[in-house]
Amino acid sequence: MSLHARLKVRRGADPALGHWQSFDVPFEPGQSVLDGLRWIRANRDPTLAVRFSCINANACKECMMELDGTTVYACTARLEPREMTLAPLSNKPLLRDLVTEIAPPPERLLK
Questions:
Q1: How far apart are the first and last CA of the chain?
Q2: What is the biggest distance separating any 2 CA atoms in the chain, rounded to whole angstroms?
Q3: Distance (Å, rounded) from C-alpha 29 to C-alpha 92?
Q4: Concatenated DSSP letters for 21-82?
Q5: Is 58 within 8 Å of 76 (Cβ atoms)?
Q6: pTM
């Protein structure tokens, strides 16, 4: 029997109209939540929006999100063989899915 992690992900661009979507991800010890999200994008849903620049280095701070209500870095949070709830940062403006505006206003690109 192979183990799976179930990632329950908040989807959408509008906090009021968003919805939850669950994905079963193959589990192997040592994987990060970011590994699971990248697996989803590669194998199940390429439209899932998630931000990251590094892999398992905790240097860029771009993969911050809420895991079961606690703010974590997806690259260092460990995937577990259970249901894990992932949501965008609740204190930042939502762009889409798990991506929020993290750059301070003076550093944002003008549209």
A1: 50
A2: 51
A3: 31
A4: EEEEEE--TT-BHHHHHHHHHHHT-TT-----SSSS---S-TTEEEETTEEEETTTSBP-SS
A5: yes
A6: 0.88
- Residue 62 to residue 105: CA distance in whole angstroms: 16
Report yes or no: 37 and 51 within 8 Å, Cβ to Cβ: no
Please count the other Cβ atoms lying within 10 Å of the Cβ belonging to residue 51.
19
Query: For residue range 48-87, what is the model confidence (pLDDT) as tens digits?
Result: 999 988 765 556 778 999 999 999 999 999 999 999 999 9
Give CA separation, 75 vs 10, 50, 107, 109, in Å. Answer: 18, 12, 24, 25
Mean pLDDT (the chain) is 90
